[in-house]
TrEMBL record:
Superkingdom as given in the UniProt entry: Eukaryota
Entry keyword set: Amino-acid transport, Auxin signaling pathway, Cell membrane, Membrane, Symport, Transmembrane, Transmembrane helix, Transport
Cellular component GO terms held in the UniProt record: endomembrane system; plasma membrane
Family per similarity comment: Belongs to the amino acid/polyamine transporter 2 family. Amino acid/auxin permease (AAAP) (TC 2.A.18.2) subfamily.
Membrane topology reported for the UniProt record: Multi-pass membrane protein
GO molecular function: symporter activity
Residue ranges annotated for the Amino acid transporter transmembrane domain, each copy included: 33-468
Name the UniProt record assigns to this protein: Amino acid transporter transmembrane domain-containing protein
Pfam families from the UniProt entry: Aa_trans
Role description: Carrier protein involved in proton-driven auxin influx. Mediates the formation of auxin gradient from developing leaves (site of auxin biosynthesis) to tips by contributing to the loading of auxin in vascular tissues and facilitating acropetal (base to tip) auxin transport within inner tissues of the root apex, and basipetal (tip to base) auxin transport within outer tissues of the root apex. May be involved in lateral roots and nodules formation.
Transmembrane segments: 42-61, 67-90, 125-146, 166-182, 188-211, 279-300, 320-341, 385-405, 411-431, 443-468
GO process terms (BP): amino acid transport; auxin-activated signaling pathway
Organism: Psophocarpus tetragonolobus (Winged bean)
Amino acid sequence: MIENSGKDTFEVSSEALSQTGSKYFDDDGRPKRTGTVLTSSAHIITAVIGSGVLSLAWAIAQLGWVAGPAVMILFSMVTYYTSTLLAACYRTGDQLSGKRNYTYTQAVSSYLGGANVKFCAWVQYLNLFGVAIGYTIAASISMMAVKRSNCYHFSGGKNPCKMNSNFYMISFGVAEIIFSQIPDFHDLWWLSVLAAVMSFTYSFIGLGLGVGKVVGNGRIKGSMTGVTVGASVTEAQKVWRSFQALGNIAFAYSYSMILIEIQDTVKSPPAESKTMSKATLVSVLVTTIFYMLCGCFGYAGFGDASPGNLLTGFGFFNPYWLIDIANVAIVVHLVGAYQVYCQPLFSFIERQAKQRFPDSDFMSREYEVPIPGCKQPYKLNFFRLVWRTIFVILSTVIAMLLPFFNDIVGLLGAIGFWPLTVYFPVEMYIVQTKIPKWTMKWICLQMLSAASLVITLVAAAGSIAGVVSDLKVYKPFVTSY
């Protein structure tokens, strides 16, 4: 019956659907969803707790003991509130029976349409491309840290162990070219699970080392206003770095671009928006507590000298093997996280190519390649092979030109914060709930959006200023660390 085609297939499918009822299929005919508050919270926490946590001690150091934690709490509150607005827009119309939106861009298309869809797609995919660059930089830093640590100990501290990051970025890029050839996002589940385990591994090690640093110092370092202006930091640098710190904190909380996709795994009833609001509350609370611990203990241990990447601040000292484990965990995590964030972009480009050139074998034809030891042959598509390889090479080359972890992280946080975390959720919620213009609620929502836009602009300016400053002393492909 399944092999029939045309009208008969549709009729059989409809009959089967009516017979099985809600046991196997949802209201739109798709397979039954089973997601809960627990699973959704796990997805969000796994996505959020990543390499961004390593820059939080540096961010708090720029802002100080008063503004640093306050800004982090403020970002958590804004993220939670706008996430609940976005969750309410999962269905167009009624929260239980309205049409489901399976992706962020589809939700924007349903509620806002027009230029907003293109703007959303550009921002979302530009941010994903930027993540690929940032992850390449972060992975190379960790690989160099392991190499330098072992070099230092084997030489007894006599060798300065300077090295160039290019080799390590290229090595990471080669690995990503291989993993990028996995055709479908769903085939990456094992890599995502491994990446999630690794993210918690290095985060907890960083937290533990931070606590140990404070205990070892016997006092809490830092000041109320952050890094002191003096010989090493000018007033202008203090301002720009404070702006950049906002972008770093925003990047650590960025998960709005995948919220709708996570919500699409939640079962109903109850309404998906209710489940997702609870999951968001749990996730933001857990994440904020964890971030506060990592950032604050890092700042308390290092003070004004807090490093841009927390793990690099512990240098080559014992327990160096534990720091090596953490850095290896970062590399493994970033290999998987790179794919998790880039696969949606890969799929989007490939769908567009097939639609534009439907008769092209280069675009759409798949060749079965047998793999020894595997039951299923690998499905080779030449366009996928070429396009994904070019993407990885391009992101690797840009990372080699701009290997500045904090600046790139801050810029990514700035690019994604206002449009994806605030603007689109606010505008879609206004349309969804039909809030009249110039009412108090409408004005408050627009003020929140405007304030977030200002934060995005200053954070982006601070990060760009950081890149310009770094480029004055950095020679691409030459400078060693």
